[in-house]
Amino acid sequence: MNLTGTLEDDGRTLVLVRRFGVPIDDVWASVTESDRLARWFGTWTGDPSSGRVMVTMNAEPEPGKPSEFRVDTCEPPRLLAVSAEDEFGNWRLSAELAEVDGGTTLTLRQRDLDPKTLPETGPGWEWYLDRLVAAVEAGEPPSLAAFDADYMPMSAGYGALGAS
């Protein structure tokens, strides 16, 4: 399995891209609607118009407790930017969608990333985004066993990316 993430010039923004063979609205729904998000990441509750929702991740080995996510920017169906703070640090994420050749491209950015966390963060996003592709295209999402066997070996590559 090949590492797909890159760092922007600031050295603290991880970028991963995935391509989908479906219209932009379908990918947008999988990123923003709680029942669709549940297929690959987790669910959310609350009122997004308040600027805050509670997100519960559901693909992890142990059920997680809800985390508060701030909705920093929501420009359907092209840009969603959220941020959160938890025991693992600060998360500043954006999903940018673009229509390309009859399909959709999603660019995920995690900003203000500590490069030392890349060996864990990079494989994690690879796994989650492959789960998103499977959810959108009605495929079989990669399992936790696949994460350990196929995605965690990318840790060394992400570590080297953060050290360069």
UniProtKB/TrEMBL annotation:
Gene3D superfamilies: 3.30.530.20. SUPFAM superfamilies: Bet v1-like. Transmembrane segments: none annotated. Pfam families: AHSA1. It comes from Promicromonospora sukumoe. This is Uncharacterized protein YndB with AHSA1/START domain. CDD domains: SRPBCC_CalC_Aha1-like_6 (cd08899). Belongs to the AHA1 family. Residues 22-137 form the Activator of Hsp90 ATPase homologue 1/2-like C-terminal domain.
